[in-house]
Amino acid sequence: MMFVFGGGDGKYWLNDLLIFDLTTLEWSGPVATQGIAPVGRLQHSAITFEKKIYIFGGEPDQYRQLNDIFYLDTTTLTWVKP
């Protein structure tokens, strides 16, 4: 599975989560998650560690930069702000 978070649609920055199945080559999403998801953003950093995806920073609009961190537990699809 490949997880894709955030980005934009040409008008707004998104906090959508999409999942690409690398076996079937099919997309799912936007996928429903639990917890409080990060605000929409682009140009964020992301890493994976122990079945979690950590999202740091990014831009919620063209005027601000974020300094926050969230993680998504990929087994439960739950967002957490540590």
Characterise the protein shown here.
With 82 residues, this protein is mainly β. It is built from no helices and 8 strands. It has strands at 2-5, 17-21, 26-28, 34-35, 45-49, 52-58, 66-73, 78-80. The strands form 2 sheets. Strands 4-8-7-6-5 form a 5-stranded mixed beta sheet, with no helix packed on it.
Helix-strand blueprint:
Layout: E1 2-5, E2 17-21, E3 26-28, E4 34-35, E5 45-49, E6 52-58, E7 66-73, E8 78-80
* Distance linking N and C termini: 24 Å
Structure annotation, total helices: 0
Strand-residue proportion:
over 45%
- Based on CA atoms alone, the radius of gyration comes out at 13 Å
Record field, number of beta strands = 8
- What strand order characterises the main sheet? 4-8-7-6-5
**Can you tell me the residue ranges where pLDDT is under 50 for at least 5 consecutive residues?**
none
Helix content: under 10%
From the helix content, strand content and strand pairing, which structural class follows?
A: mainly beta
Tell me about the biggest sheet? 5 strands, mixed
Identify the overall geometry. globular
Mean pLDDT: 94
Along the chain, the helix and strand elements come as: EEEEEEEE
